[in-house]
Amino acid sequence: MIPQKFEYSAPKSLDEALALLARGAKPLAGGMSLIPMMKLRLAAPEHLVDLRRLRGLDDIRESGRGLEIGAIATHYDVENSPLIRQKCPLLAETAGAIGDVQVRNMGTIGGSVAHADPSADYPAALQALEARFVLKGAKGERTVSAADFFLDAFTTALETGEIVREILVPSDDARTGTSYKKVAQPASGFAIVGVAARVRQKEGKFSFVRIGITGLGNSAYRAVACERALEGRPATPAAIESAAALAAQGIDANSDLHASADYRRHLAAVHTARALATALSRIV
Amino acid sequence: MKVSGSYSLPVGPERAYRLLQDPGELARAMPGCESLEQIGPDEYRLRLKVILATLTGSFEGSVRIADPTPPLSFRLMVEGSGRIGFLKGQGVLHLAAAHPSTEVEGTEVSYDGEVEVGGTLAAVGQRLVDGASKMMIKRFFEKLSQNVRESRASLP
After folding, report:
1. How confident is the model at residue B156 (pLDDT cuts 50, 70, 90)?
2. Predicted confidence band at B1 (pLDDT cuts at 50, 70, 90)?
3. Could you tell me whether strands B33-40 and A26-28 are parallel, antiparallel, or unpaired per DSSP bridges?
4. Does B83 touch chain A if contact means CB atoms closer than 8 Å?
5. Model ipTM?
6. Who among A34, A153, A190 is closest to B54 (CB)?
7. Of chain B residues 2-21, which have a CB less than 8 A from chain A?
8. What are the mean pLDDT values of chain A's consecutive 10-residue runs (284 residues total)?
9. 3-state secondary structure of A79
């Protein structure tokens, strides 16, 4: 279908874009969620501000703060950036698991996190990475942690007129093993459940465990009970198995025609165990 | 699709029961509610504007209350349709004193019901219906509690 009539701006400077957004325009990044909704006329924004021509907004670089990923870097960019593959392989692996190649070529990391779909892949990895989000609006800039950014289904800490400018993730060394495991909905590629694990070990024991889970409830979360059950314990299959049972603890899981809430909880436990085992095996 | 859950309100069951049947209070707490007017003894006309992520849609419909057993329970039936689809839901709300052994006033409201969604909304949004309805119900109860606290604070 053809969308309703709308105005379109493609500014070259961030200030210009922010001024338009402050007046009520809607930001467009990769358009992988927004455009289909507009075509179905489920969304009818009056004015779109295309962010893809903003210079420097797709940069990926390393600084003292870790890796800085510009908001309009595409999933393909994140998947294939040599820097991310080397220093933050969990994020590259997760990007490569999103949708299909067409979506990965167009969709952006900033657009995905700002949309905050409950079944999106990135939020699992970003929770496990304890990522931070640099948000920018006409009034200024602020940095928000992943824990404070994802509030509910399609609801983030972003205020009207603000955009995600960049995403900060730690640069890990080879002593950190990571893995992302997902059960994809076959038609859309969205995660029915997706688990990101990030682990370190010392003398045969887990010294550091971070687990991020998406697809279960209204927003991705850190499986803190599971992390606590593992840190300081021997890095054995038995320990992983018993801790993974805590993956969905305290989470109000959703049901849909693809998977019931109970099945989602089951998948979360199974894939947490698999993600942990793979992450452990990848420690160099 | 089944929905269920429970929330607490910072007032006793009698007051909570009246609150949950007061069109003015409900309209103020319901996310996206544009109007709620009484059209019969237990029937109201509802206009709702849903804004969820990129999705925006207006619904017009009715809300009916049946089997009233104050202050313990009542049945709620909601029906609405709009350009992007229709929704239909019904459920029973149970009210119970939250802290029966203490002096603190509070009511535990639990609900159990079913929601049906159709049209374009269901065709593309099926996987989101559960999460979205939970979020709307949560926002409703949070706003209702907040309104109660504010009106109490403004008393002389």
Report:
1. low
2. confident
3. unpaired
4. yes
5. 0.76
6. A34
7. 2, 5
8. 94 96 95 92 92 95 96 98 98 98 98 96 98 96 97 92 97 94 94 98 97 96 98 96 96 90 97 98 93
9. helix
Give me the domains of chain A, ranges plus CATH numbers.
Answer: 7-50 (3.30.43.10), 60-169 (3.30.465.10), 177-281 (3.30.390.50)
Does A41 sit within 8 Å of B54, measured CB to CB? Answer: no
* Position B50 confidence tier, pLDDT thresholds 50, 70, 90: confident
Contact (Cβ atoms closer than 8 angstroms) between residue A27 and residue A114: yes
C-alpha to C-alpha distance for B152 and B156, rounded to whole angstroms: 9
**Cβ A256–B129 below 8 Å, yes or no?**
yes
Picking from B24, B8, B146, the residue whose alpha carbon sits closest to that of residue B154 is B146
For residue B155, name the pLDDT band (cuts at 50, 70, 90): low
- The distance of A207 to chain B (nearest Cα, Å) reads 35
List Cβ<8 Å contacts ≥24 apart for B33-38. Answer: B34/B58, B36/B63
- The secondary structure of B81-123, three-state, reads EECCEEEEEEEEEEEEECCCCCCCCCEEEEEEEEEEEECHHHH
**A 22-51 near B (Cβ less than 8 A):** 26, 33-34, 36-38, 40-45
B18 in Cβ contact with B9 (< 8 Å): no
CA distance B15 to B73: 13
Model pLDDT for residues B10-20, shown as the tens digit of each residue? 999 999 999 99
CA distances from B87 to A226, B83, B118 (A): 38, 11, 6
CATH superfamily of B2-151: START domain (3.30.530.20)
